[in-house]
Amino acid sequence: MKRFSRMFSYIMMLMILFAAMPTELDARGGSRSSSSRSSSSRSYSRSKSTSRGTSKSLTSKRSTSTKKTKAAVTRSKVDQKAYATAKANGTAFKSKGDATKSFKSKYGKQYTSTYATKPATRPAHIPQTYKDPGGNTYNVTYNSQHGGYGYMGPSGTWMAYNAMSDAIMLNALMQRNNYYYDKPVTQAVPAQRGSPAGYILGALLAAVVIIGIAAVFFD
Hints:
By secondary structure, this protein is mainly alpha-helical. Among the domains are: 1-23 and 193-219; 80-181, no CATH class. The protein has helices at 2-50, 52-74, 77-89, 96-107, 167-176, 196-218, and strands at residues 92-93, 129-131, 137-139, 141-143, 148-152, 158-160, 180-181. Helix 1 (2-50) runs antiparallel to helix 6 (196-218). The longest helix is centred in the first third of the chain and has 49 residues, at 2-50.
């Protein structure tokens, strides 16, 4: 019974310590942050009063260099070369949607699948097979009755091939005509790590727990 009461008292003491940890850490963090804010505000007011014009010029130069750095980072050497070519041709766009819309408007009628007679040479924009969004693959052939290239759809009906609806062919044709658009960049979020003080405090608490348990059971 005596050992049980000692164990209960020890557990209650640990619970009090764990409950007090966040408050103490927050208080320390708050005092540090408030002091740093006060010191930074004093230094900022002094610098602002003495060099207002200089700070404006430095800010403008810094913002310009930042923009150049971002542009260089988001494009590789290959992309930068493709962008330069597309910009010279007027085919550089900020998004895939804008580039696709412009390409279809300009080349939609050129890359057709309708031919009154079968061409002597198969057009480069007519593939041998077509894969629909559902994952089904069809053979693309010329049909004289329908006057063009197409395939037999899932229901057995003739479907004219449309290069503007074929994502693979559309992408190839846009590259062939020097169309370029910036790809969205995914930024990795760095993993959050605990502070060294937290690790040390946790190790000390673990040591106290082990020593306390040993003292209760082996006393």
